Amino acid sequence: MNGTNEHLLSGVRILDMTRALAGPTCTRMFAELGADVIKVEPAPDGDMVRSISKLRNERSFYLIQQSLNKRSVCVNLRDPRGLSLLRDLVPHCDAVVENFKPGVMADMGLDFDALRTLRKDIILCSISALGQSGPLATKPGYDYIAQAYSGITSMIGDADEAPYIPLAGIGDVSTGVHAAFAIAAALVHRARTGRGQHLDVALLDCYYHCHEVNVHQHTGSGGKIDPMRAGRHLSYICPAGVFRVPGGNVVIMGFMHHWPDLCAAMGRQDLVGHPDYATDADRLARRSEVVSLIEGWLAGFPDRDSAVSKLEVHGVPCAPVLSVAETVQHPHLRERGTVRTVNDRIAGSFEIPGMPIRTSDYPAHPGYSAPALGEHNTSVLGELLDYDADTIASLRADGVLVEGDV
Amino acid sequence: MNGTNEHLLSGVRILDMTRALAGPTCTRMFAELGADVIKVEPAPDGDMVRSISKLRNERSFYLIQQSLNKRSVCVNLRDPRGLSLLRDLVPHCDAVVENFKPGVMADMGLDFDALRTLRKDIILCSISALGQSGPLATKPGYDYIAQAYSGITSMIGDADEAPYIPLAGIGDVSTGVHAAFAIAAALVHRARTGRGQHLDVALLDCYYHCHEVNVHQHTGSGGKIDPMRAGRHLSYICPAGVFRVPGGNVVIMGFMHHWPDLCAAMGRQDLVGHPDYATDADRLARRSEVVSLIEGWLAGFPDRDSAVSKLEVHGVPCAPVLSVAETVQHPHLRERGTVRTVNDRIAGSFEIPGMPIRTSDYPAHPGYSAPALGEHNTSVLGELLDYDADTIASLRADGVLVEGDV
Q: How close A51 gets to chain B, by Cα (Å)?
């Protein structure tokens, strides 16, 4: 926790029992907006991600990225004194967030009913892969498992080949943000009604939420429309998708009213009024021909960026497909803070994604830092529970509390 | 708006000037949690999505999915009386949400400073493709353009081929939820401080937010790690990805402590302690061999689901890659409400994704309906602005207010 920590959510306190990605994204959104987030890590090793991306000085860059402005308390959750300590913290917290396998919180005596006996208006947010209910609820879950069940995986790749998976935590991050919204809404509700809430947020549901047309088109057409992956181009407008250029790829959105602009860029005004290409439906019916025509034109450019420049002159919506390495250097992403630099006291300086919410009153990146394992054992237990130094030392000696160097 | 509308966000009122997908997702999250969302649609045709997915009775299924529990007011925004009416509504609203191209709100005299003169503590949330600031801010933006600039597109497909795009609104939906969280946090902040806020949420930033390891691994390794799409399998653990089975595909997560379970499922206990496959690093070094070995085993199953059953018996995290058509029928998704049925008074019954936030106090799907164009002109202007029937009739006669059948 840094300095005054004044931001949108100052004054809110979260007991963060999450690990890995979806849960920590949720609580980090709170921490980055100034909430006091107490990250509970299981002794002796802490969050499993402390072993990932140890790129310098034994410090996990993964942990840093997900733990900015959080406080770390490292507790043996298999020791009754550890669980008792957690129960003592609950009355001081507005919300508890967890992403254990469904049932684990109950096993620890920390299900919603139990938490409510500790604080009547507590908010509990349970994050899981496939949900707290339903026949698949107890299946072991990862992002890509929820993605496969959601039908999203089936929409990526060529129709006659096995699908691809995006190598990024799209579902985990989106789910974490869904959960953050749910908790913030429950805080607004609590202010009005005095009541707490149990929130159930699942990766499966959050992935499914992304089907903007697929589900209603399938069911609304009585099954006649069967949504399926269709390569590098959209299946309901044309042209729109990824196009090859020498040395790279560009995204071009040249449908509807953008088609005449694209024709102008290509120097093919003859195509604007041509009956074969008059509407998106006409162009869709000849999609491979339209794509070949555009890629044939693009083949004449020396490189990707000169093609993008030409398209921009004509107002055609377009973008270079940037590699991750290119994004880090891009002037727009740097100026905007989409790429941010963190200066970690142990690992030094490197880049991570910026906070995706900008406010008019507060800086997006106030120089937050991430905690070492159990760094805030003493301060949290001292401040909130009035534990004295002897009690803490005794718990430490017994391995109920653990502190690490990184 | 339905019945008592009692839910988490009852009592909150949103002036919703958004169209298409990212903005309407944000305001729908509020509407589904009981807020009074006044959807402002430009006369004469309304939100552009009213022309998409008109599958029955001229009704847009797209509009229905994104407008549940919203009220529609259809106003000519090029008429001073239309803009004046909007200004009159602002003091009655807690937040204004818009996803115009940056600059358009100012052109209408509705930028943050102007809104603050109408209501001192107003919250304005501006949603855009590439952000309100930076050299690319004024570029025309679509989901896939932001995705290309974010580096996410570069992480989908085979390394030596052009990338693929997911045929679902992943970025728009995630951005809408980011924006919803931002507004809810600003409401909590306003309750504490009495102050409003201008929020800037962009697809580019929300997509970039999904890089859980790519950005820090590239920069933290001094550029030695160059994240790039790598086919159907994860690039840092193994085996993990999409595997072919007769008649379909399965996702298998067989890394770390799951490897012995996978070996048991395959009847290949000899591989558990084998030095060639002992760790994820060993298996990664032989990734194509490991994938072939697993797909060779899977080829012996009669179909996808029998392979999944076998893997489940051995506790291996796995999933069938479901098509959208299969998700709609799946017992888990139906029981959980991940798939929900809407009964539209004009279009009839069909399925859409469920509300991805479940609460303990309220039903997830209280039978919400979506408005016809301008359906709530009279009720909103009557209730909030005390416009009488003659005034409304006169505005309607002049085309300042428009009402449609669907």
A: 13
Which residues of chain A does B102 touch, with a Cβ-Cβ cutoff of 8 Å?
Answer: none
Distance CA B185, CA B207 (A): 20
Rounded to the nearest angstrom, the minimum Cα separation between A291 and chain B is 13
Report strand pairing: B197-202 vs A59-60.
unpaired
Domains and CATH numbers, chain B: 13-209+334-397 (3.40.50.10540), 240-323 (3.30.1540.10)
Measuring CA to CA, which residue among B42, B15, B108 is closest to residue B384?
B15
Does B57 have pLDDT greater than 60? Answer: yes
Distance from CA of residue B359 to its chain's centroid? 19
DSSP 3-state assignment of B358? strand
pLDDT exceeds 80 at position B4: no
How many of the other CB atoms lie within 10 Å of CB of A365?
A: 14
Q: How far apart are the first and last CA of chain A?
A: 16
- Measure the CA–CA gap between A384 and A337, rounded to whole angstroms: 35
Give dist(CA A390, CA A396) in Å, integer.
Answer: 10
Please give the interface size between A and B, counted as residue pairs whose CB atoms are below 8 Å apart. Answer: 503
Cα gap B326→A173, rounded to integer Å: 25
Is B151 touching A (CB cutoff 8 A)? yes
- Distance of alpha carbon A218 from alpha carbon A128, whole angstroms: 27
According to DSSP, the residues that pair with A46 across neighbouring strands are none
- Which amino acid is present at A397? A
Task: Say which of B47, B94, B172, B280 is annotated catalytic.
Answer: B172
Cβ pair A241:B165 closer than 8 A:
yes
CA dihedral (B372, B377, B382, B385) positive or negative: positive
A27 touches chain B (CB under 8 A): no
Tokens found for residue B204: 């580019």
Distance of alpha carbon B328 from alpha carbon B269, whole angstroms: 38
Residue percentage of chain A with pLDDT more than 90: 97
Query: What ipTM was estimated for this complex?
Result: 0.98
**Alpha carbons A75 and B313: distance in angstroms, whole number:** 34
Q: What is the CA radius of gyration of chain B?
A: 25
For residue A3, pLDDT over 70 is answered with: no
Phi, psi (degrees; rounded to nearest 5) at B241: 160, -155
Yes or no, beta carbons of A228 and B184 under 8 Å apart:
no
Q: Using the Cα atoms of residue B365, residue A17, residue A380 and residue A121 in order, give the sign of their dihedral.
A: positive
Looking at residue B128, its amino acid is: S
In sequence order, the 6+-apart residues with CB closer than 8 A to the CB of B263 are B269, B270, B271, B272
Q: CB–CB of A61 and B188 under 8 A?
A: no
Catalytic residue at B172?
yes
- The percentage of chain B sitting over the pLDDT mark of 70, rounded to a whole number, equals 99
Say yes or no to pLDDT of A1 above 70: no
Partner-chain contact A354 B208, CB within 8 Å: yes
| Torsion (CA) A206, A369, A48, A325 in degrees, nearest 10 | 70
* Segment A89-138, tens digit of pLDDT: 999 999 999 999 999 999 999 999 999 999 999 999 999 999 999 999 99
- Distance, CA of A114 to CA of A116 (rounded, Å): 5
Average of pLDDT values for B143-156?
98
